[in-house]
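Private note to self, pasted from the team thread so I don't lose it. Backbone tokens:
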């Protein structure tokens, strides 16, 4: 018999067909199992866990996601043990079982040392203070020949020496020199600035953060400045002025659209004011006759 005589046997083709069918079945089964394991095409919108404690998210979502704590920060304004930041961000499209990394508010404050801010410029002092984990409570301007130089640093009303150990997040009052000229401070435009950055921007400008009004009920991370008093149009104010701010949520208020509308209104207002000024000049020129000019000229001599 020849070497290819098996090709004439029916048994060979039956076995070949079984092998092909078995291969197709195994391939289908593998793909099916991979889809089940990877949850192919099944994505979900990740909830916002901000403000919830570790126990709360584990109880409510522990079966859906794998939560991993990566850091903690201290805050006096937020609940100890609550989540302040998460990765992936809220509303991200993820699969069930995804690792969710989060940062919580520490239950006990960290400690830091008070830096020496005396004789530094206001900007240098604020940067050094914040890098040490401390905050500005208030800027108080006093008579001093050096403009915007730090004259004194106080904590809870008492002078605090450099090197003193404090809780991170403690607020320091800075006494700042007025200088010899007593210049006003330029008002920064706060519109659209996140709530977490407002005080820093004002302090750098030599101003204080006054009352804060939240017009929307939402997480602090979405809040941005919608209005300020004194208004930005005032241009400049006295050093240490307290600025009142109103916040809106960026998830419910279109800041870009509102800014564009305001810019259009300002341009129209400016154009109208310029036209009124030009019209008043034209009217005054029309009412003044050449004879009047000659008479006035003769009267002067």
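Design output:
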């Amino acid at each position: 018999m020849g070497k290819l005589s098996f090709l004439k046997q029916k048994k060979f083709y039956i076995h070949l067909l079984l092998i092909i069918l078995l291969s197709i079945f195994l391939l289908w089964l593998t793909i099916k199992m991979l889809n089940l394991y990877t949850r192919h095409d099944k994505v979900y919108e990740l909830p916002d866990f901000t403000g919830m404690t570790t126990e709360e998210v584990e109880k409510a979502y522990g079966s859906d996601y794998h939560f991993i704590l990566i850091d903690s920060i201290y805050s006096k304004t937020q609940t100890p043990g609550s989540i302040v930041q998460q990765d992936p961000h809220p509303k991200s499209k993820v699969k069930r079982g995804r690792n969710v990394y989060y940062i919580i508010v520490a239950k006990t404050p960290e400690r830091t040392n008070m830096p020496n801010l005396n004789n530094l410029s206001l900007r240098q002092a604020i940067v050094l203070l914040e890098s040490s984990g401390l905050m500005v409570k208030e800027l108080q301007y006093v008579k001093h020949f050096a403009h915007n130089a730090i004259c004194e640093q106080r904590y809870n009303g008492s002078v605090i020496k450099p090197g003193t150990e404090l809780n991170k997040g403690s607020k320091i009052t800075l006494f700042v020199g007025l200088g010899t000229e007593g210049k006003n401070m330029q008002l920064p435009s706060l519109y659209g600035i996140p709530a977490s950055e407002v005080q820093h921007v004002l302090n750098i400008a030599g101003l204080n953060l006054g009352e804060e009004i939240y017009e929307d009920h939402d997480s602090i991370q979405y809040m941005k400045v919608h209005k300020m008093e004194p208004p930005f149009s005032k241009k400049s104010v006295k050093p240490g002025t307290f600025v009142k701010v109103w916040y809106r949520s960026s998830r419910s208020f279109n800041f870009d659209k509102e800014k564009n509308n305001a810019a259009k209104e300002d341009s129209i207002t400016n154009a109208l004011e310029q036209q009124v000024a030009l019209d008043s000049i034209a009217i005054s020129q029309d009412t003044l006759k050449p004879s009047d000019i000659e008479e006035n000229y003769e009267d002067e001599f």
